């Protein structure tokens, strides 16, 4: 699964790495312990608001981690939807609409995972690659029924991280891991013209396994209130 990650890359670096055209919202400070329900930066492609027929542009914007479907009656449902199993995203009611039309990327330095030992203890590890990880995600917009249509906070933007069966080093720590997209997959993943669910399934199935490097970190990361660079230091 993916229940915690680190994201310290600046907006300027993200714009360059992901060919972002439009930046929406204020930059976020570096986070060494991103936790569910927190605000995160995401990359997506979307047509400019108020311009019918306009071509989609690649955006960098903020969203809350924990997907809230547009039909949800209570946004608290997002607290349980921080991850989506990539094997079923085109089937489950909570994810299938977003899988067809609202895919995104969550940039990360790496993510944390906990390995369960025989004595019942859980040991935290940090898994990273050779650069910024492009974790595949889905996003949704939830309309707050208590706010008027012209209110700036009418629409709540939320995201979820896709997970897949863990292999390589990640599989030794936990059976699930984020779906990490190689650079050659970014354009097609973000393309809103890709709407056929079978094609989305085929794309997900073709993503190669990432080669991640794990190392043990201190248990201070267990508390989401802790957020400092030392959390990423090896034990």
Give a summary of the structure in a few sentences:
The protein is mainly β. The chain is built from 4 helices and 11 strands; from the N terminus they run βαβββββαββββααβ.
Polypeptide structure, described:
With about 240 residues, the chain is mainly beta. The chain has helices spanning about 10-15, 95-100, 185-190, 195-205; strands spanning about 5, 20-25, 30-35, 40-45, 55-65, 85, 105-115, 120-145, 155-165, 175-180, 215. Strands 4-5-9-8-7 form a 5-stranded mixed barrel. The mean pLDDT is about 95. It holds the Pfam family SRAP. Belongs to the SOS response-associated peptidase family. Keywords: Covalent protein-DNA linkage, DNA damage, DNA-binding, Hydrolase, Lyase, Protease.
Q: Could you tell me the mean pLDDT?
A: 93
The tally of structural domains comes to 1
**SSE topology string:** EHEEEEEHEEEEHHE
Number of strands: 11
Class by alpha and beta content: mainly beta
Map the helices and strands.
Blueprint (H helix, E strand, L loop, with lengths): L4 E3 L3 H7 L4 E2 L7 E4 L4 E8 L10 E9 L17 E3 L10 H6 L1 E14 L5 E22 L11 E11 L10 E3 L7 H5 L6 H10 L6 E4 L19
Parallel strand pairs: 2-5, 5-9, 6-9
Antiparallel strand pairs: 1-3, 1-7, 4-5, 4-7, 7-8, 8-9, 8-11, 9-10
